[in-house]
Amino acid sequence: MDNIDATADGVTTVLLIRHAHTDALGRVLTGRTPGVSLSAEGARQAARLAEVLTARVRLAAIYTSPLRRAIETAGRLAWRQRLPVHAHDQLLEMDFGEWTGRSFADLDTDAAWRRFNEHRSIAVTPGGEQIADAQARIVDAIGTLGSRHRGETIALVSHAELVRLAVLFYRAMSIDLHHRCEIAPASVTALALGAGRVRLEYVNSTLFSA
């Protein structure tokens, strides 16, 4: 992976970046809970991501989910790249409604949560966003922002669920196969947009933050 800049011949490279580690990871469904910051480990990941990515590519723009953990991750990259950070609502985490803020241990006792994980394509998120709508939102963001920066490389800092939904869409895979698509903190997934096609270059690379 010596060169991640695929801008030759008018191809646009979109780097989908999951925000770095938080202390809630694996314990609580944070969702759109405001004010959740990166952990010490997350700050290290974000700094390393910014350093290694900047050594390999010059970005034209950085867009981020407006949630703090994503803004903090994007901010490290922006400092290295000497670019502003643009908050973009379409990159916001999925709205998990009534499940937001609950521990995963508690959620595992909830039949609706279990159905969601077994059959996401048809499950209902109580009081929240439906997963097909979240997928349509991230795919639209990729198309819109990619068109805005034709022939350039841009970074979109978002959340695991949104990045995963984008990967499933471009792989033409069912949302029900979400468990086959791991998206680690501070990982990078690259898309090449050009000639009416979108190609996945790689998925869930942690080489930039290791």
Task: Describe the protein in words.
This protein has 210 residues and is α/β, with parallel strands linked by helices. It is 34% helix and 17% strand. It contains 6 helices and 6 strands, in the order βαβαβαααβαββ. The chain has helices at 40-56, 68-81, 104-107, 111-118, 131-148, 160-170; strands at 12-18, 61-64, 85-87, 153-158, 188-194, 197-205. It has a 6-stranded mixed sheet with strand order 3-2-4-1-5-6, with helices on both faces. It starts with 11 loop residues before the first strand and ends in a 5-residue tail after the last strand. Residues 1-7 have low confidence and may be disordered.
Give a nutshell description of this structure.
The protein has helices at 40-56, 68-81, 104-107, 111-118, 131-148, 160-170; strands at residues 12-18, 61-64, 85-87, 153-158, 188-194, 197-205. The protein has 210 residues and is of the alpha/beta class.
In terms of topology, how is this protein built?
Elements lengths: L11 E7 L21 H17 L4 E4 L3 H14 L3 E3 L16 H4 L3 H8 L12 H18 L4 E6 L1 H11 L17 E7 L2 E9 L5
Parallel strand pairs: 1-4, 2-3, 2-4
Antiparallel strand pairs: 1-5, 5-6
Helix pairs in contact: 1-2, 5-6
List the quaternary state of the chains: single chain
Provide the helix percentage. Answer: 25-40%
Per DSSP E runs of 2 or more residues, the count of β-strands stands at 6
Class derived from helix and strand content: alpha/beta
Unreliable residue runs: 1-7
Record keyword descriptors for this entry.
six-stranded mixed β-sheet; 6 helices; globular; alpha/beta; 210 residues; 6 strands
